[in-house]
Amino acid sequence: MAENENISEAPVAPVAPEAPKPQSEFRGPRGGRGGRGGGGRGRGRDIGENAFEKGGDETVEKVVFINRSSKVVKGGRRFKFSALVVVGDKKGRVGLALGKAAEVADAIRRGGELARSKMVAVSLKDVTIPHEVYSTYGGAKILMRPASPGTGIIAGKTVRAVLESAGVKDILTKSLGSKNAANVVKATLNGLLSLRTREQIYSARGKQIKKIEAPKAPDVVAA
């Protein structure tokens, strides 16, 4: 065979184009729409009155507010979460706390544990409050008034979480100041702690409540 003889080459099969990668793979592991945490700079999130409610050991746990904060480090951003949790037994005892952790579930759990350890008793009259009270905390101002049976809880979602956990069912409220969830919750709790029943006031003054009996009608003698 001659050295310059042409040798036909085998046909080469066409190569299929590479499939495009998903949109999320082009984004970094943190930040952006596909990363952890998403857009924004860590603003808080009000999750509503019944967004998270947990019942156990005769207590009710409500998450009022979740906030996310970020810290810029050499490798990227690190996120932490804080959860404002209200716990009550619906029988006159309520507590609140702020739990912090690297994950939302851990922050809620820590907040619930701290709130249970800080539960305090408040003075109620049946299922309402004994008298009108005006309370402030920071820029938050809360006005609460007793209501007749069947009225319900006339309040915003933040104030409602505290009142329902304490066991209040009939009340009129009005928020007159800041809408900051943490300050509103603390102002509501301060107002509940300042309540006093009539028995407590008389006892503090060293007096006793005397029951006044209605006078009896005179006997009518038949003629």
Folded structure, characterized:
- The chain is of the alpha+beta class.
- It has one domain: Ribosomal Protein S5, domain 2 (2-Layer Sandwich), CATH 3.30.230.10.
- Helices cover 20% and strands 29% of the residues.
- The chain contains 4 helices and 10 strands; from the N terminus they run E-E-E-E-E-H-E-E-E-E-H-E-H-H.
- Strand 3 (59-73) and strand 4 form a beta hairpin.
- Helix 2 (157-166) runs parallel beside helix 3 (181-193).
- 25% of the residues are buried.
Provide a quick synopsis of the model.
By secondary structure, the protein is an alpha+beta fold. 20% of the residues lie in helices and 29% in strands. The chain has a single domain, classed as Ribosomal Protein S5, domain 2, CATH 3.30.230.10.
Q: What is the total domain count?
A: 1
Order of helices and strands: EEEEEHEEEEHEHH
CATH topology: Ribosomal Protein S5, domain 2
Give the amount of beta strand, in percent.
Answer: 25-35%
What is the helix content? Answer: 10-25%
CA distance, first residue to last residue:
159 Å
Profile the largest sheet: 6 strands, antiparallel
Radius of gyration: 32 Å
Number of helices: 4
Strand and helix map with partners:
Layout: E1 45-46, E2 53-56, E3 59-73, E4 76-88, E5 93-101, H1 104-117, E6 120-121, E7 133-137, E8 140-146, E9 153-154, H2 157-166, E10 171-175, H3 181-193, H4 198-204
Parallel strand pairs: 9-10
Antiparallel strand pairs: 1-3, 2-3, 3-4, 4-5, 5-6, 7-8, 8-10
Helix pairs in contact: 2-3
